Amino acid sequence: MAGDRINSTDCDQVSPNFEELLNNTNSGDPKFPMSKSSANSVEDLHCELKDQIYSERLSQLKIEIEKLNIPEMQINSEDLHDQFCDPNNPVQIKFNDISAAAYRIKGGVEITPCTRSHMSSLTGMEIFFKKEFLQYTGSFKERGARYALLSLNKDQRARGVIAASAGNHAQALCYHGKMLKIPVVVVMPKIAPIMKISNCRSYGAIVIVEGTSMLEAKNFALKLSKVLDLMYINGYDHPNILAGQGTMALEILEQVPDVDAIVIPTGGAGLLAGVAVAAKAMKPDIMIIAAESDRCAGFYNSMKNGKPTLTIADPTLADGLAVSVVGVNAFASAKNLVDKCVCVQEEYIAISILRLLELEKAVVEGAGACGFAAVLQGSLPELKGKKVVIPLCGGNIDTTILGRVLERALVADGRLIKLWVTISDRPGSLAEFTKSISSFGASIKDIAHERAWLKNDVFSVQVQAIMEVENSEKAKEIEEFLIKKYEKVIMGPYGIQK
After folding, report:
1. Which of 10, 158, 185, 418 has minimal Cβ neighbours within 10 Å of its Cβ?
2. Residue 80: how many other CB atoms lie within 10 Å
3. Is the full-model pTM beyond 0.90?
4. Mean pLDDT of 292-317
């Protein structure tokens, strides 16, 4: 599975078309004279030639793609077959595969810190966060992407690869493709965040935005892989992807040797499979827990049914985990190694993003925060008093989305409340209302009057106020006080609705 061994530097492989030229240049062949002054520039020549080959192949691919009418392409069942992800012949990765991946990607992927959390005392367990959002492209996906690219043979490297992804896998593949001078084409659905689309283009890859969902984008990518003769790399189920993701577990066990459990955000189950295989091989008594959004509980349903099961993915903050069917290789590798699977509510995902930002100073996307959300939800009482590692898998969240998530998190946390109170429309009534609110330490963020649409007497006014309070207990105190003082009080929902 590892393929031909190559170095991990930017200029580690040369296209077969130029191999003879470079070998002759290196050997001092008289047909390719090389002066003494240029002897130290052979590596630069290699890089220049690789850049030229890489650029020419990308240009060729762009021309070929422009000739295609992608939305109108006819796609049949044969087009959708992926030889590396065959449901009838799933591949179970082994510990040796992960060890090989760790050796190959060394130096090309960051060894991210795994530090004790400030929230350990608040949760009753000793939590360590594996900060994968500190990878260059902002997610753990670089591990599998780099190993998959390094494992290509010479012909595959020369032709290039294609993948379907809504963001993190695409970014990782595009970045490392550029570093290794391997042409990359990615098909991204129209729902993909603009920031991630822009990042992929900035890495020099060919980006095709097509399909209204990940499933449609994947179908287009598989079809194009046949049309363009490109290697398709499944972002959560290719065996080399699983092996690459598993290298995270090797780092975790070196950084926290006495860890009792790892809580892994789960979508297609690629990371779960890789980490489970490596961690259980090195520490058989370790607990492996899968955490996924309850709006796309694909792995939970698959475990329940004993096979990969189609699950309708509803919109979720953990968009990176919204995979309709878990990978067949991933499921085969992980199913007997996972001790528990937890489904988390959207409100807890939002709160976990807020807590990580406030207390850990970490900007984490919804998918990356899903493991911690399982802890905040109280779904893992068996981990009380134990050492727990939670990978923070990614930090690629749009700033506009982040603002909305934080506001919703404050509401779910009971710290941002909205209310309507009918008070007297007399001088001093509003001042009295705001003074009462201030006595509870609340900060009014927005306030408005409504007179025309009231059905009360003309001497009344409805006040709508949005305010920030210390916690949900304080919000409850304000609600009880206002109900006693005023006849008509309406509180908007706050806190997590059970």
Report:
1. 10
2. 12
3. no
4. 93
